[in-house]
Amino acid sequence: MGALDELTRPACDDDHVGGMPARLVATPASTGEAAAVVAASRGLAVVVRGGGTKVHWGPPPRSLDLIIDTRRLAGVVEHAAGDLITVLRAGTPLGDLALGDQQLALDAPAGATAGGVVATAASGPRRLQYGTARDLLIGITVVRPDGVVAKAGGKVVKNVAGYDLGKLYTGSYGTLGLITECVFRLHPRPAASVYVRSTAPAQAVPAILAAQVAPTAIELDTATGELTVLLEGTPAGVRERSALIEKLLAGEVSEAAPGWWGRDPWAADEIGMKLSVPLSKVPALVGLGSALRGSAGAGVLYAAARDITEVERLRAQCVRGGGHAVVLTAPAEVRDILDMWGPVPGLAVMRRIKDQFDPEHRFAPGRFVGGI
Q1: FAD-binding PCMH-type domain location, by residue (predicted)?
Q2: DSSP conformational letter for 282
Q3: What is the location of CATH 3.30.465.10 in the chain?
Q4: Lowest-pLDDT range of 40-54, 144-158, 235-249, 347-361
């Protein structure tokens, strides 16, 4: 128990996950220390915590002995500007990155860490142009639940060597082990950007895409009735394209994003959902009258549901349209009676992967699909 004695402290009142309190908190500062903690924690139920911005997402763990906090496991390991890649430790806050004329095009709330964004597969408005964490992650270092350090991917964008652990760990909610380093693909920082704000309906999205203006994001907010397009590039190119979209949508050009841009639509006492549907089904989803916000251009919307009936209505609409809906967060009084994940294809495969990586089922037990 040496590593636990050296690198842990007793948990305090704030050290809980979904209301489940922990007994201990570990704070490793390197992959080696993290591996030592994991190896020494055999028999304990473990949850990994980054900045804590999404620690309330998903069901609470069935049991919790140890929180591994990654915030000391932070910093830029490497920035290879010529190769357009960066290597980040998992606890690095994405908002603190300074990469010169390059960017990691992941929209993350203040305090969110590299590892946390990967573990929850979080994404924001710019996913339409740049993709999600799953697309931008090209290499990963993890500590398996048995304490063994594993690496996959590499430091070049087209590397295909090795088993693609990155895709397995993306969106796994910490159920397969501890992420300690991430290798990301970067993009040049645009010289200019503008927002075209309008009250056009969701039905206008196909026309925007057909205009071939290469939008970085197309976002809608049903509370304000706004449809907003983000355009990036050279100053001359942005001026030309924004004039076209301004005319198409009868909108107005703004240097600033609307206040709702990239923010969750739900309050603390509401149920927060992520809805994914084909683009053609977005208008029908908007037509249900729920409070929705998100990417009308990518078919990924976030909803504030008032009760379980509304959750079921939104989920049914998504499933009928060939999509899916998950509950990300919910008040404690309804969380236990909600089916947070809904029907998910491939559950049997996911169970086999969990059994292979974590046969004792001690990493984030019960936090993932089907009680994994």
Answers
A1: 17-189
A2: H
A3: 1-189
A4: 144-158
Report the distance separating Cα 35 and Cα 26, nearest Å.
12
In what helix (H) or strand (E) does residue 148 lie, and over which residues does it extend? none
Domain at 1-189: CATH architecture: 2-Layer Sandwich (3.30)
Q: Which two tokens stand for residue 100?
A: 């010169």
CATH class of the domain whose range is 192-254: alpha beta
Domain 271-347 CATH assignment equals 3.30.70: yes
Write out pLDDT tens, residues 280-313.
999 999 999 999 999 999 999 999 999 999 999 9
pLDDT digits (tens, 9 = 90+) for 26-80: 999 999 999 999 999 999 999 999 998 888 899 999 999 999 999 999 999 999 9
Q: Lowest-confidence range among 156-170, 240-254, 288-302?
A: 156-170
Distances, alpha carbon 165 to alpha carbons 77, 150, 321, in Å:
20, 9, 31
Token pair of 106 as six digits: 């992941």
CATH 3.30.70 positions along the chain are 192-254, 271-347
Nearest CA among 42, 26, 289, 4 for reference residue 148 = 42
SS3 101: coil
Task: For residue 315, give every residue at least 6 positions away whose Cβ sits within 8 Å of its Cβ, in sequence order, or none.
Answer: 324, 325, 342
